[in-house]
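ARCHIVE CARD
CATEGORY: sequence design from structure
SOURCE FIELD: tokenized fold
FIELD CONTENT:
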């Protein structure tokens, strides 16, 4: 993943948030995130079985790697350009018969730039080590300056949840910068329940839901990814 150089102010030091699930699989997930955040080659390699397989979907396209050394080098290489990594949020726990690990890093560069990156990995764990991993990556994304995020407005008119509102909401939220907010005015009664659920499913933060004077609903969502 090649990083485009962008000039953005360095944000305040956020407090990491981690959600942990007991058990062997969750433990190796937590260890994997900690080793990657610390860019500790030996510790990260120890999370994998010798013939581990990695399939990754990154902005540049799909990738496939095999072997503990190769997978370790690939993962660390994605963050090689950053001077420091800061763990913002992580979670680790079982999902069906697999281990789901997610994490968000802040990447701080020597030239003063700061970006965020989020990844989700679905893993097969054998004897306490990762044997296979399917990973999806957001790519390197610019951070919105704290305290300066703007609010965008979208009047959905007569669009309803059964007549194109979900698709238009996706387009609208995707067109604003990460960290900014979208205020949606919708008149479809079902939007009050459906739009917040859609926003959360897409990984965004619902800031408020309130009734509008004309009988509709006003939803404010912060773009998170």
């Amino acid at each position: 993943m090649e990083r485009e150089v962008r000039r953005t102010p360095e944000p305040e030091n956020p407090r990491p948030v981690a959600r942990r699930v007991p058990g062997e699989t969750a433990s190796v997930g937590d260890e994997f995130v900690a080793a990657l955040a610390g860019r500790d080659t030996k510790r990260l390699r120890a999370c994998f079985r010798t013939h581990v397989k990695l399939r990754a979907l990154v902005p540049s396209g799909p990738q496939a790697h095999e072997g503990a050394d190769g997978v370790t080098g690939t993962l660390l290489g994605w963050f090689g350009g950053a001077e420091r990594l800061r763990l913002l949020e992580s979670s680790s726990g079982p999902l069906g018969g697999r281990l789901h690990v997610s994490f968000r890093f802040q990447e701080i560069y020597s030239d003063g730039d700061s970006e965020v990156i989020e990844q989700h990995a679905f893993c097969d764990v054998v004897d306490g080590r990762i044997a296979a991993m399917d990973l999806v990556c957001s790519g390197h994304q610019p951070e919105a300056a704290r305290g300066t995020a703007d609010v965008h407005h979208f009047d959905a008119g007569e669009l309803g949840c059964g007549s194109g509102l979900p698709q238009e909401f996706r387009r609208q939220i995707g067109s604003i910068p990460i960290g900014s907010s979208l205020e949606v005015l919708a008149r479809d009664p079902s939007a009050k329940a459906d739009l917040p659920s859609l926003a959360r499913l897409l990984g965004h933060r619902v800031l408020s839901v309130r009734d509008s004077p004309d009988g509709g609903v006003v939803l404010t969502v912060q773009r998170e990814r």
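CARD ANNOTATION: The chain has a mean pLDDT of 85. Residues 24-37 form the longest helix (14 residues).
SHELF: design records, drawer C
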